[in-house]
Structure formats: C-alpha cells, structure tokens
Amino acid sequence: MPTISKNNQNLFPSFFNELNNLFNDQWLSTSMQHSIPAINVSEDAKEYKIEIAAPSTTKEDFNLSVNNGILSIKMEKKCDNKEEHKDKKYIRKEFNYCKFEQSFTLPENIDENSIDAEMTNGVLCINLPKRNIEPEKPETKVIEIK
After folding, report:
1. Which domains does the chain have, with CATH numbers?
2. Contact call for residues 138 and 105 (beta carbons, < 8 A)
C-alpha cells in the first residue's frame, strides 16, 4: 500500500530525485492498475448467482442486459465532480473514472425472464433462476415398406 512520507533532509530536492520518484515502481504499479471488480459465480439446485464486488458504486452505475443467451454487465462510474472540490488541490488522484464490461454465455436452462439483481453494500448480486427442461423423448418412427 502506498504511503505518504515527508523528508525534511533536503528542502530543495533535485530534479533527478523528483524524476526518480515519478518513475518509482510502486507509483507506476498503482497508477496503472485497472479497476476490475472481483466476481463470484455459484450454483445451487434452483439458480446460478453472480456476485460482483464494486465498492462505492450504486445501482445507477450498472447496466444489465440479456440478448440471445448472453448476459452483459456494464459499469461506468465518474467520480470527478469539479464543483465539489473547488478549494482542494490533489497531489495524487487515482479514482476518478472506472469502466467495466463483462459478458456471460448463459446455459440453456436459465429462465431469462426471471433474472433479477440487487445492489447491497457495494456488492451487485444477479440471480439467474433455472427452469426445468424436459429431456426430449426419442420418438420411434415406423417406416412403411413399399
């Protein structure tokens, strides 16, 4: 986890020290990380469940759709409200925009019309109820001999 430290030894840091700080491995690794939420997929006898950990998001940030057996999950969050921070100057700001897209191919036994979702405490829970599919009974066809 990055920490902020203060060094009083040199009140006029050299250009090269600042340049080194800019390319510090820890700085680059945290600033270049993508926000990919953790996803759990579970199954029981009645349904599949997809849980997406997305702290600080709301249900308005998500768009869920089903088309031709594919569940699409899209999330877009813009956190930068300039009016809110007029008196603040950021030294480092990493969470101002997040975008995420994920698609799942659904099994044939999903009841697409009964899919529902709920957002609770930063976790989006999508319930995918199963429907009973009767196995096709093989038909015996009598062939007439001519």
Report:
1. 35-129 (2.60.40.790)
2. no
